[in-house]
Predict the 3D structure of the following.
Amino acid sequence: MQFKRITGLVSSAAFVVSLTILAPREAYAQQLEFIRDAEIENTLRQYANPLFAQAGVDPNAVEIHLVKDQSLNAFVAEGLNLFINTGTIIQADDPGQLMGVIAHECGHIAGGHLVRGEEAMSNAMTTGLAAMVLGAAAAIAAGRQDRSAYEKGVPGAYTNTGALLPATLGAAGEVAYKTYASFSRTIEGSADTAGLQFLDNLHMSARGLLAFFEKLEGEELLVTTRQDPYVRTHPLTSDRVDQVRNHVEHSPWSDVPPPPEFVEPHQRMRAKLAAFLNPPMSTLYKYKESDTSVPARYARAIAYYRIPDLDHALPLIDGLIAERPNDPYFHELRGQILYENGRPMEAIPEYKAAVKVLPENALLHQELGQVEVESEDPAQLADAKEQLNAAIRKEPDDPGTWRLLAVAYGRDGDEPMAAAGMAEYALLVGRYSEALFQANKALKGLKHGTPIAIRMEDVRAQAEQHQDKPRNR
Protein backbone atom coordinates (compact mmCIF):
# COMPACT_ATOMS: atom_id res chain seq x y z
CA MET A 1 0.00 0.00 0.00
CA GLN A 2 1.42 3.34 -1.05
CA PHE A 3 0.54 6.73 0.42
CA LYS A 4 0.68 9.93 -1.57
CA ARG A 5 0.13 13.38 -0.17
CA ILE A 6 -1.45 15.60 -2.79
CA THR A 7 -1.69 19.33 -2.21
CA GLY A 8 -3.26 22.22 -4.04
CA LEU A 9 -6.26 20.71 -5.77
CA VAL A 10 -7.64 23.45 -7.96
CA SER A 11 -10.09 25.65 -6.09
CA SER A 12 -12.41 28.13 -7.73
CA ALA A 13 -11.40 31.78 -7.83
CA ALA A 14 -11.64 33.58 -4.51
CA PHE A 15 -15.09 35.01 -3.88
CA VAL A 16 -15.53 38.19 -1.86
CA VAL A 17 -18.45 36.73 0.06
CA SER A 18 -17.68 34.00 2.58
CA LEU A 19 -19.60 31.15 1.02
CA THR A 20 -19.91 27.45 1.78
CA ILE A 21 -20.39 25.72 -1.57
CA LEU A 22 -21.73 22.20 -1.68
CA ALA A 23 -19.55 21.23 -4.63
CA PRO A 24 -17.29 18.29 -3.72
CA ARG A 25 -14.25 19.86 -5.32
CA GLU A 26 -14.58 22.85 -2.99
CA ALA A 27 -14.94 20.59 0.03
CA TYR A 28 -11.68 18.93 -0.99
CA ALA A 29 -9.80 22.00 -2.15
CA GLN A 30 -7.42 21.61 0.76
CA GLN A 31 -4.83 18.90 1.24
CA LEU A 32 -5.61 15.38 0.09
CA GLU A 33 -3.70 12.20 0.79
CA PHE A 34 -4.21 9.38 -1.67
CA ILE A 35 -3.63 5.66 -1.24
CA ARG A 36 -2.51 3.33 -4.02
CA ASP A 37 -3.16 -0.37 -3.54
CA ALA A 38 -3.47 -2.91 -6.34
CA GLU A 39 -5.94 -5.15 -4.51
CA ILE A 40 -8.32 -2.39 -3.43
CA GLU A 41 -8.20 -0.66 -6.81
CA ASN A 42 -8.96 -3.93 -8.61
CA THR A 43 -11.82 -4.76 -6.23
CA LEU A 44 -13.38 -1.34 -6.77
CA ARG A 45 -12.97 -1.84 -10.52
CA GLN A 46 -14.98 -5.05 -10.25
CA TYR A 47 -17.78 -3.11 -8.63
CA ALA A 48 -17.59 0.01 -10.76
CA ASN A 49 -16.85 -1.03 -14.34
CA PRO A 50 -20.35 -2.40 -15.11
CA LEU A 51 -21.83 0.80 -13.63
CA PHE A 52 -19.47 3.01 -15.66
CA ALA A 53 -20.65 1.18 -18.78
CA GLN A 54 -24.26 1.81 -17.75
CA ALA A 55 -23.42 5.51 -17.48
CA GLY A 56 -22.30 5.44 -21.10
CA VAL A 57 -18.58 5.90 -20.58
CA ASP A 58 -15.60 3.67 -21.28
CA PRO A 59 -14.66 2.13 -17.91
CA ASN A 60 -10.98 2.44 -18.82
CA ALA A 61 -11.41 6.20 -19.18
CA VAL A 62 -12.47 6.65 -15.54
CA GLU A 63 -9.76 7.01 -12.90
CA ILE A 64 -10.54 5.74 -9.40
CA HIS A 65 -8.81 7.54 -6.53
CA LEU A 66 -8.67 6.37 -2.90
CA VAL A 67 -8.68 9.31 -0.49
CA LYS A 68 -7.17 8.60 2.91
CA ASP A 69 -9.98 10.00 5.03
CA GLN A 70 -12.02 8.21 7.68
CA SER A 71 -15.19 10.19 6.98
CA LEU A 72 -17.91 9.10 4.57
CA ASN A 73 -17.68 10.62 1.13
CA ALA A 74 -17.47 9.85 -2.57
CA PHE A 75 -17.68 12.18 -5.54
CA VAL A 76 -16.82 12.65 -9.18
CA ALA A 77 -14.81 15.70 -10.22
CA GLU A 78 -12.38 17.19 -12.72
CA GLY A 79 -13.35 15.06 -15.70
CA LEU A 80 -13.85 11.31 -15.37
CA ASN A 81 -12.44 10.86 -11.88
CA LEU A 82 -14.16 8.95 -9.08
CA PHE A 83 -12.94 9.74 -5.56
CA ILE A 84 -13.82 7.39 -2.68
CA ASN A 85 -12.86 7.98 0.95
CA THR A 86 -11.33 5.05 2.77
CA GLY A 87 -13.90 5.63 5.51
CA THR A 88 -16.69 4.94 3.04
CA ILE A 89 -15.17 1.55 2.19
CA ILE A 90 -14.50 0.58 5.80
CA GLN A 91 -18.02 1.53 6.90
CA ALA A 92 -19.74 -0.22 3.98
CA ASP A 93 -21.00 -3.41 5.61
CA ASP A 94 -21.38 -5.29 2.33
CA PRO A 95 -20.60 -4.83 -1.37
CA GLY A 96 -24.17 -3.65 -2.06
CA GLN A 97 -23.71 -0.49 0.00
CA LEU A 98 -20.55 0.52 -1.81
CA MET A 99 -22.02 -0.37 -5.20
CA GLY A 100 -25.04 1.78 -4.40
CA VAL A 101 -22.80 4.76 -3.71
CA ILE A 102 -20.88 4.17 -6.94
CA ALA A 103 -24.14 3.82 -8.89
CA HIS A 104 -25.21 7.22 -7.59
CA GLU A 105 -21.90 8.80 -8.64
CA CYS A 106 -22.30 7.21 -12.07
CA GLY A 107 -25.65 8.99 -12.23
CA HIS A 108 -23.75 12.26 -11.95
CA ILE A 109 -21.46 11.21 -14.80
CA ALA A 110 -24.37 10.19 -17.03
CA GLY A 111 -26.24 13.40 -16.29
CA GLY A 112 -23.34 15.67 -17.19
CA HIS A 113 -23.54 17.17 -13.72
CA LEU A 114 -19.85 18.07 -13.60
CA VAL A 115 -20.23 20.67 -16.34
CA ARG A 116 -23.64 21.79 -15.11
CA GLY A 117 -22.26 22.07 -11.59
CA GLU A 118 -19.57 24.49 -12.75
CA GLU A 119 -22.25 26.61 -14.43
CA ALA A 120 -24.46 26.50 -11.34
CA MET A 121 -21.56 27.51 -9.10
CA SER A 122 -20.76 30.40 -11.40
CA ASN A 123 -24.40 31.48 -11.38
CA ALA A 124 -24.50 31.24 -7.59
CA MET A 125 -21.42 33.40 -7.32
CA THR A 126 -22.84 35.94 -9.76
CA THR A 127 -26.13 36.05 -7.87
CA GLY A 128 -24.36 36.42 -4.55
CA LEU A 129 -22.08 39.12 -5.90
CA ALA A 130 -25.04 41.06 -7.30
CA ALA A 131 -26.83 40.79 -3.96
CA MET A 132 -23.69 41.98 -2.19
CA VAL A 133 -23.23 45.00 -4.46
CA LEU A 134 -26.88 46.05 -4.19
CA GLY A 135 -26.86 45.51 -0.44
CA ALA A 136 -23.64 47.46 0.00
CA ALA A 137 -25.00 50.32 -2.11
CA ALA A 138 -28.16 50.39 0.00
CA ALA A 139 -26.09 50.40 3.17
CA ILE A 140 -23.96 53.28 1.95
CA ALA A 141 -27.04 55.22 0.85
CA ALA A 142 -28.64 54.63 4.24
CA GLY A 143 -25.47 55.83 5.92
CA ARG A 144 -25.45 59.02 3.85
CA GLN A 145 -29.09 59.76 4.66
CA ASP A 146 -28.57 59.16 8.36
CA ARG A 147 -25.42 61.30 8.36
CA SER A 148 -27.37 64.12 6.73
CA ALA A 149 -30.03 63.82 9.42
CA TYR A 150 -27.33 63.69 12.08
CA GLU A 151 -25.75 66.89 10.76
CA LYS A 152 -29.17 68.55 10.98
CA GLY A 153 -29.34 67.66 14.65
CA VAL A 154 -31.76 64.72 14.52
CA PRO A 155 -31.01 62.69 17.73
CA GLY A 156 -29.49 59.21 17.19
CA ALA A 157 -29.64 59.57 13.44
CA TYR A 158 -26.08 58.62 12.40
CA THR A 159 -25.64 55.06 11.17
CA ASN A 160 -22.19 53.47 10.95
CA THR A 161 -22.11 52.15 7.38
CA GLY A 162 -19.25 49.81 8.27
CA ALA A 163 -21.48 48.05 10.76
CA LEU A 164 -24.09 47.40 8.07
CA LEU A 165 -21.67 45.88 5.56
CA PRO A 166 -20.96 42.56 7.37
CA ALA A 167 -24.68 41.84 7.49
CA THR A 168 -24.91 42.72 3.80
CA LEU A 169 -22.07 40.33 2.96
CA GLY A 170 -23.62 37.58 5.04
CA ALA A 171 -26.96 38.03 3.30
CA ALA A 172 -25.25 37.88 -0.10
CA GLY A 173 -23.56 34.63 0.88
CA GLU A 174 -26.92 33.23 1.92
CA VAL A 175 -28.40 34.17 -1.46
CA ALA A 176 -25.55 32.42 -3.29
CA TYR A 177 -25.76 29.40 -1.02
CA LYS A 178 -29.51 29.00 -1.60
CA THR A 179 -29.03 29.39 -5.35
CA TYR A 180 -26.50 26.58 -5.49
CA ALA A 181 -28.28 24.40 -2.89
CA SER A 182 -31.44 24.41 -4.99
CA PHE A 183 -29.48 23.16 -7.99
CA SER A 184 -27.64 20.61 -5.86
CA ARG A 185 -30.85 19.07 -4.52
CA THR A 186 -32.11 18.72 -8.08
CA ILE A 187 -29.03 16.95 -9.43
CA GLU A 188 -28.76 14.67 -6.38
CA GLY A 189 -32.30 13.43 -6.99
CA SER A 190 -31.49 13.00 -10.67
CA ALA A 191 -28.33 11.01 -9.86
CA ASP A 192 -30.36 8.79 -7.51
CA THR A 193 -32.89 8.07 -10.27
CA ALA A 194 -30.17 7.21 -12.77
CA GLY A 195 -28.22 5.10 -10.28
CA LEU A 196 -31.30 3.09 -9.36
CA GLN A 197 -31.97 2.44 -13.03
CA PHE A 198 -28.38 1.29 -13.55
CA LEU A 199 -28.68 -1.18 -10.67
CA ASP A 200 -31.96 -2.51 -12.08
CA ASN A 201 -30.39 -2.90 -15.52
CA LEU A 202 -27.66 -5.03 -13.94
CA HIS A 203 -30.21 -7.02 -11.91
CA MET A 204 -28.72 -5.71 -8.68
CA SER A 205 -30.50 -4.66 -5.50
CA ALA A 206 -30.71 -1.05 -4.33
CA ARG A 207 -30.98 -2.14 -0.69
CA GLY A 208 -27.33 -1.24 -0.24
CA LEU A 209 -27.90 2.37 -1.30
CA LEU A 210 -30.89 2.58 1.03
CA ALA A 211 -28.84 1.19 3.92
CA PHE A 212 -26.11 3.74 3.19
CA PHE A 213 -28.62 6.59 3.22
CA GLU A 214 -30.06 5.33 6.48
CA LYS A 215 -26.56 5.47 7.99
CA LEU A 216 -26.46 9.15 7.05
CA GLU A 217 -29.95 10.28 8.08
CA GLY A 218 -28.85 11.20 11.59
CA GLU A 219 -25.91 13.21 10.23
CA GLU A 220 -28.18 16.04 9.08
CA LEU A 221 -29.02 16.80 12.71
CA LEU A 222 -25.35 17.48 13.50
CA VAL A 223 -23.67 20.85 13.20
CA THR A 224 -21.80 21.26 9.92
CA THR A 225 -18.34 20.74 11.38
CA ARG A 226 -19.34 17.32 12.73
CA GLN A 227 -21.15 16.08 9.65
CA ASP A 228 -19.58 13.62 7.27
CA PRO A 229 -18.64 15.40 4.01
CA TYR A 230 -21.11 13.22 2.10
CA VAL A 231 -24.01 15.00 3.80
CA ARG A 232 -22.59 18.42 3.00
CA THR A 233 -21.78 17.59 -0.62
CA HIS A 234 -24.88 15.44 -1.26
CA PRO A 235 -27.88 17.04 0.52
CA LEU A 236 -29.84 14.10 1.93
CA THR A 237 -33.49 15.11 1.84
CA SER A 238 -36.40 12.97 3.04
CA ASP A 239 -37.64 12.93 -0.56
CA ARG A 240 -34.44 11.24 -1.71
CA VAL A 241 -34.61 8.58 0.99
CA ASP A 242 -38.29 7.99 0.24
CA GLN A 243 -37.50 7.65 -3.47
CA VAL A 244 -34.91 4.93 -2.82
CA ARG A 245 -37.14 3.19 -0.28
CA ASN A 246 -40.04 3.17 -2.74
CA HIS A 247 -37.77 1.77 -5.45
CA VAL A 248 -36.62 -1.04 -3.15
CA GLU A 249 -40.25 -1.92 -2.37
CA HIS A 250 -41.17 -2.26 -6.05
CA SER A 251 -38.00 -3.40 -7.86
CA PRO A 252 -37.97 -7.08 -8.89
CA TRP A 253 -34.26 -7.22 -8.00
CA SER A 254 -34.43 -5.96 -4.42
CA ASP A 255 -33.96 -9.38 -2.86
CA VAL A 256 -30.99 -10.32 -5.06
CA PRO A 257 -27.91 -10.54 -2.83
CA PRO A 258 -24.60 -8.99 -3.91
CA PRO A 259 -22.62 -11.25 -6.27
CA PRO A 260 -21.06 -13.98 -4.12
CA GLU A 261 -17.66 -13.45 -5.73
CA PHE A 262 -17.67 -9.91 -4.28
CA VAL A 263 -18.24 -10.87 -0.65
CA GLU A 264 -14.78 -12.05 0.46
CA PRO A 265 -12.87 -9.41 -1.57
CA HIS A 266 -15.04 -6.78 0.10
CA GLN A 267 -14.24 -8.04 3.59
CA ARG A 268 -10.55 -8.34 2.68
CA MET A 269 -10.55 -4.78 1.40
CA ARG A 270 -12.12 -3.46 4.61
CA ALA A 271 -9.78 -5.52 6.78
CA LYS A 272 -6.72 -4.38 4.84
CA LEU A 273 -7.61 -0.70 5.05
CA ALA A 274 -8.43 -0.91 8.75
CA ALA A 275 -5.19 -2.77 9.47
CA PHE A 276 -3.02 -0.27 7.58
CA LEU A 277 -4.77 2.87 8.83
CA ASN A 278 -5.68 2.06 12.44
CA PRO A 279 -3.30 1.40 15.34
CA PRO A 280 -2.10 -2.24 15.30
CA MET A 281 -3.53 -2.99 18.74
CA SER A 282 -6.94 -1.80 17.59
CA THR A 283 -6.74 -4.20 14.64
CA LEU A 284 -5.68 -7.12 16.84
CA TYR A 285 -8.56 -6.39 19.20
CA LYS A 286 -11.08 -6.33 16.35
CA TYR A 287 -9.70 -9.37 14.50
CA LYS A 288 -9.07 -11.74 17.38
CA GLU A 289 -6.94 -14.89 17.22
CA SER A 290 -10.08 -17.01 17.43
CA ASP A 291 -11.21 -15.64 14.05
CA THR A 292 -9.55 -17.85 11.46
CA SER A 293 -11.23 -16.34 8.41
CA VAL A 294 -9.03 -15.14 5.57
CA PRO A 295 -9.80 -11.43 6.12
CA ALA A 296 -9.06 -11.70 9.85
CA ARG A 297 -5.71 -13.47 9.37
CA TYR A 298 -4.85 -10.95 6.65
CA ALA A 299 -5.57 -8.06 9.01
CA ARG A 300 -3.54 -9.58 11.84
CA ALA A 301 -0.56 -10.19 9.52
CA ILE A 302 -0.60 -6.49 8.58
CA ALA A 303 -0.98 -5.38 12.19
CA TYR A 304 1.96 -7.50 13.38
CA TYR A 305 4.12 -6.29 10.47
CA ARG A 306 3.39 -2.69 11.45
CA ILE A 307 4.40 -3.20 15.11
CA PRO A 308 6.88 -4.65 13.79
CA ASP A 309 6.63 -8.26 14.93
CA LEU A 310 7.77 -10.43 12.03
CA ASP A 311 7.75 -13.56 14.18
CA HIS A 312 3.96 -13.33 14.11
CA ALA A 313 3.46 -11.54 10.78
CA LEU A 314 5.37 -13.92 8.50
CA PRO A 315 3.77 -17.17 9.72
CA LEU A 316 0.32 -15.65 9.18
CA ILE A 317 1.04 -14.55 5.62
CA ASP A 318 2.89 -17.82 4.90
CA GLY A 319 -0.19 -19.72 6.00
CA LEU A 320 -2.37 -17.71 3.64
CA ILE A 321 0.05 -18.30 0.75
CA ALA A 322 0.12 -22.03 1.51
CA GLU A 323 -3.67 -22.11 1.16
CA ARG A 324 -3.75 -19.85 -1.90
CA PRO A 325 -0.38 -19.95 -3.66
CA ASN A 326 -1.67 -17.99 -6.67
CA ASP A 327 -3.08 -15.05 -4.74
CA PRO A 328 -0.98 -12.10 -5.95
CA TYR A 329 -1.86 -9.84 -3.03
CA PHE A 330 -0.59 -12.26 -0.38
CA HIS A 331 2.73 -12.43 -2.24
CA GLU A 332 2.75 -8.64 -2.55
CA LEU A 333 2.25 -8.22 1.21
CA ARG A 334 4.99 -10.72 2.00
CA GLY A 335 7.30 -8.84 -0.35
CA GLN A 336 6.44 -5.55 1.33
CA ILE A 337 7.10 -6.98 4.79
CA LEU A 338 10.52 -8.28 3.75
CA TYR A 339 11.52 -5.21 1.74
CA GLU A 340 10.61 -2.73 4.46
CA ASN A 341 12.55 -4.75 7.00
CA GLY A 342 15.81 -4.62 5.05
CA ARG A 343 15.50 -7.91 3.13
CA PRO A 344 14.99 -6.78 -0.50
CA MET A 345 16.60 -9.82 -2.12
CA GLU A 346 14.07 -12.07 -0.37
CA ALA A 347 11.27 -9.70 -1.36
CA ILE A 348 12.00 -9.80 -5.12
CA PRO A 349 10.66 -13.36 -5.71
CA GLU A 350 7.43 -12.44 -3.91
CA TYR A 351 6.82 -9.41 -6.12
CA LYS A 352 7.71 -11.48 -9.18
CA ALA A 353 5.08 -14.03 -8.14
CA ALA A 354 2.49 -11.24 -7.88
CA VAL A 355 3.41 -9.80 -11.29
CA LYS A 356 3.22 -13.26 -12.85
CA VAL A 357 -0.42 -13.58 -11.77
CA LEU A 358 -1.35 -9.98 -12.70
CA PRO A 359 0.96 -9.01 -15.57
CA GLU A 360 -1.28 -6.09 -16.59
CA ASN A 361 -1.09 -4.32 -13.24
CA ALA A 362 1.12 -1.23 -13.42
CA LEU A 363 1.43 -0.80 -9.67
CA LEU A 364 2.84 -4.29 -9.14
CA HIS A 365 5.39 -3.74 -11.93
CA GLN A 366 6.40 -0.46 -10.29
CA GLU A 367 6.78 -2.06 -6.87
CA LEU A 368 8.93 -4.88 -8.25
CA GLY A 369 11.09 -2.40 -10.16
CA GLN A 370 11.53 -0.26 -7.05
CA VAL A 371 12.68 -3.19 -4.91
CA GLU A 372 15.12 -4.29 -7.63
CA VAL A 373 16.55 -0.77 -7.92
CA GLU A 374 16.89 -0.32 -4.19
CA SER A 375 18.43 -3.76 -3.68
CA GLU A 376 21.66 -2.12 -4.93
CA ASP A 377 22.45 -5.33 -6.80
CA PRO A 378 23.67 -4.39 -10.30
CA ALA A 379 22.40 -7.73 -11.59
CA GLN A 380 18.82 -6.58 -10.88
CA LEU A 381 18.99 -3.36 -12.92
CA ALA A 382 18.13 -4.86 -16.31
CA ASP A 383 14.90 -6.38 -14.99
CA ALA A 384 14.15 -3.24 -12.96
CA LYS A 385 14.21 -1.17 -16.15
CA GLU A 386 11.96 -3.71 -17.86
CA GLN A 387 9.46 -3.65 -14.98
CA LEU A 388 9.38 0.13 -14.71
CA ASN A 389 8.95 0.56 -18.46
CA ALA A 390 6.06 -1.91 -18.29
CA ALA A 391 4.48 0.22 -15.55
CA ILE A 392 4.93 3.39 -17.60
CA ARG A 393 3.25 1.84 -20.63
CA LYS A 394 0.18 1.32 -18.45
CA GLU A 395 0.39 4.54 -16.42
CA PRO A 396 2.55 7.06 -18.30
CA ASP A 397 1.58 9.93 -16.00
CA ASP A 398 2.96 8.50 -12.75
CA PRO A 399 5.93 10.70 -11.80
CA GLY A 400 7.23 8.26 -9.19
CA THR A 401 7.79 5.55 -11.80
CA TRP A 402 9.72 7.95 -14.03
CA ARG A 403 11.94 8.95 -11.10
CA LEU A 404 12.70 5.31 -10.31
CA LEU A 405 13.44 4.61 -13.97
CA ALA A 406 15.86 7.53 -14.02
CA VAL A 407 17.64 6.08 -10.98
CA ALA A 408 17.82 2.66 -12.63
CA TYR A 409 19.39 4.08 -15.80
CA GLY A 410 21.75 6.25 -13.73
CA ARG A 411 23.01 3.29 -11.70
CA ASP A 412 23.48 1.37 -14.93
CA GLY A 413 25.66 4.20 -16.29
CA ASP A 414 23.22 5.40 -19.00
CA GLU A 415 23.28 9.15 -18.33
CA PRO A 416 21.18 10.28 -21.35
CA MET A 417 18.34 7.91 -20.44
CA ALA A 418 18.63 8.87 -16.77
CA ALA A 419 18.26 12.53 -17.79
CA ALA A 420 15.28 11.61 -19.98
CA GLY A 421 13.56 9.93 -17.04
CA MET A 422 14.19 12.94 -14.81
CA ALA A 423 12.88 15.26 -17.53
CA GLU A 424 9.60 13.32 -17.63
CA TYR A 425 9.41 13.33 -13.84
CA ALA A 426 10.06 17.06 -13.58
CA LEU A 427 7.49 17.87 -16.26
CA LEU A 428 4.79 15.84 -14.46
CA VAL A 429 5.41 17.52 -11.09
CA GLY A 430 5.54 21.01 -12.58
CA ARG A 431 9.26 21.73 -12.25
CA TYR A 432 9.56 23.21 -15.71
CA SER A 433 13.06 24.68 -15.43
CA GLU A 434 14.37 21.32 -14.30
CA ALA A 435 12.45 19.54 -17.06
CA LEU A 436 14.01 21.85 -19.64
CA PHE A 437 17.50 21.32 -18.23
CA GLN A 438 17.16 17.52 -18.13
CA ALA A 439 15.61 17.32 -21.62
CA ASN A 440 18.50 19.31 -23.09
CA LYS A 441 20.98 17.13 -21.19
CA ALA A 442 19.33 13.98 -22.56
CA LEU A 443 19.30 15.29 -26.14
CA LYS A 444 23.05 15.82 -26.07
CA GLY A 445 23.58 12.09 -25.66
CA LEU A 446 20.62 10.64 -27.61
CA LYS A 447 20.70 9.73 -31.27
CA HIS A 448 18.78 12.30 -33.31
CA GLY A 449 15.49 11.07 -34.73
CA THR A 450 15.01 8.15 -32.35
CA PRO A 451 11.63 7.91 -30.55
CA ILE A 452 13.14 8.89 -27.21
CA ALA A 453 14.94 11.88 -28.75
CA ILE A 454 11.71 13.04 -30.40
CA ARG A 455 9.94 12.66 -27.04
CA MET A 456 12.60 14.78 -25.33
CA GLU A 457 12.06 17.49 -27.93
CA ASP A 458 8.36 17.42 -27.01
CA VAL A 459 9.21 17.64 -23.30
CA ARG A 460 11.50 20.58 -23.99
CA ALA A 461 8.79 22.36 -25.96
CA GLN A 462 6.20 21.80 -23.22
CA ALA A 463 8.58 23.01 -20.53
CA GLU A 464 9.39 26.14 -22.53
CA GLN A 465 5.70 26.78 -23.13
CA HIS A 466 4.92 26.60 -19.43
CA GLN A 467 7.84 28.84 -18.59
CA ASP A 468 6.58 31.45 -21.03
CA LYS A 469 3.09 31.59 -19.53
CA PRO A 470 2.50 34.62 -17.30
CA ARG A 471 2.10 33.63 -13.68
CA ASN A 472 -1.18 34.42 -11.92
CA ARG A 473 -0.87 36.94 -9.15
